[in-house]
Write a structure and sequence with these properties.
It is a single chain. By secondary structure, the protein is of the alpha+beta class. It is 35% helix and 21% strand. It has eleven helices and 16 strands. It has a six-stranded mixed sheet, sandwiched between helices. Strands 12-13-14-16-15 form a five-stranded antiparallel sheet. A hairpin with a 6-residue loop joins strand 4 and strand 5. The radius of gyration is 24 Å and the shape is globular.
Length: 414
């Protein structure tokens, strides 16, 4: 969806009025750059419409810019007196590739901070500010002098470990494809964050001053887990097992198996080219599958790319959670199977899952994938199938979801 906003109008006491000109976002001397937005956010944190996105984070205090993490430096780091962290990424959204990379980047920051304690954060803030005292607490107390040190640190550690963050992406605005942003969220199980997309247009005033007019483009709250299903007689991951099935750290055998899966899927992903610029690639799992999110709310539709080691099978299928827009999309696509089958190349089939729902799937037996030549053939086939499934099914899922939302559907057939 293309978003149009009218320019502010300056009204003078004389009755004259002037429509303000928006300053272009660029690195040119007369433009507004990412660095300018970053400096504005740090100096005037109140310019962020935080209360509109998640009131729990209202009153956040600017701590520093370029806070270092293993995933890279966070543009702006803020925190509330109650120990709730706010992460800000200031970027220009030039194209779908940028949207995908920027959203993935801020989620990576959140995943890294979820491994920290308050002591880790205090250390990195001191390093960034080149200080040796309790800089973080001192900054918070400038605004809220009554903050108790022990309570603040305990709350901060708890929020870090839970992944209770506000993530803000601030820039020149998104002109289309806002709904694709939600797809990045479903792959980050365990984090309990809110995400806001904020446009920060800057307008030139007649006297040479500038006016910042921030507005919320999109916001979403996420306290969810991503559930993966698998076809009959193949690898099955039931709801709630995504975390529990990860190899326990005390088992050397399971750790080795998990690392082998990561290498396997990394090799597959390295050679995978997707035609759709908005389709993100997942990170390699330590399990027998990968999940490619489809444009449906709450992560309710995805492509599951899997490997069955016992049978030497590789395949891909469209999956969804029950009684959701994703399931509605799967049913609608299956109803048009004669057309969809041809678009998928004719080798895919529709089978029925354990709940009596249609499942669109294609798989092939290759034998032992430990053999490099066999694995190369399997990867070539699976990469083509994955790209084709994305090209054919992604727009159909998006269309079905729009229909589902417009009709206010409450029940899903099946």
């Amino acid at each position: 969806m293309t978003r149009q906003h009218s320019a502010p109008v300056l009204l003078r006491p004389t009755g004259e009025h002037t429509a303000l000109r928006q300053i272009a976002f660029s690195t040119a001397p007369d433009g507004v750059s990412e660095a300018d937005i970053q400096a504005l956010v740090h100096q005037f944190p109140g310019s962020l419409p935080i209360n509109e996105i998640d009131p729990m984070f209202a009153g956040a205090v600017s701590v520093c810019t370029e806070l270092n993490t293993p995933a890279g430096p966070i543009d702006n780091f803020l925190v509330t007196a109650s120990g709730l962290p706010v992460l800000v990424e200031c970027k220009l959204w030039r194209n779908p590739e940028a949207r995908r990379e920027i959203t993935g980047q801020i989620l990576d920051y959140a995943k890294e901070l979820a491994k920290w304690s308050s002591a880790d954060l205090h250390r990195e803030v001191n390093r960034r500010l080149k200080r040796h005292d309790n800089a973080l607490l001192e900054i918070v107390r400038r605004v809220n002098p009554a903050v108790d040190e022990i309570e603040f640190n305990d709350a901060l550690t708890a929020n870090l470990r839970r992944g209770r963050f506000l993530l803000l992406i601030v820039g020149d605005g998104i002109r289309e494809g806002v709904e694709t942003i939600a797809e990045y969220l479903s792959g980050h199980a365990g984090l309990h964050f809110s995400l806001g997309l904020v446009e920060m247009p800057i307008f030139a005033l007649p006297d040479g001053s500038k006016l910042a007019a921030p507005r919320v483009l999109a916001r979403t709250s996420v306290i969810t887990r991503h559930v993966i299903a698998a076809p009959a007689d193949h690898i099955v991951v039931e709801p709630g097992e995504l975390t529990e099935r990860r190899a326990p750290a005390t088992s050397a055998e399971n750790i080795a198996a998990g690392e082998a899966y990561v290498r396997f899927w990394s090799e597959f992903l390295d050679g995978l080219t997707l035609d759709d610029p908005e389709q993100q690639k997942p990170k390699p799992f330590k399990l027998g599958y990968l999940s490619f999110s489809m444009p449906a709310p709450a992560g309710s539709s995805w492509l599951n790319v899997y490997r069955d080691m016992r049978r030497g099978v590789m395949g891909v299928f469209l999956a969804s959670t029950r009684n959701t827009a994703g399931e509605y999309a799967s049913n609608l696509i299956a109803e048009d199977w004669d057309t969809v089958s041809k678009e998928l190349g004719g080798s895919a089939i529709v089978e029925t899952d354990d709940h009596g729902r249609p499942r669109i799937i294609d798989y092939k037996v290759f034998g032992s994938l430990d053999d490099p030549a066999t694995r190369a053939k399997a990867f070539e086939w699976l990469r083509e199938r994955t790209n084709t499934f994305v090209n054919v099914l992604r727009p159909r899922v998006r269309s079905a979801v729009a229909d589902y939302s417009a009709s206010g559907a409450a029940n899903v057939a099946g």
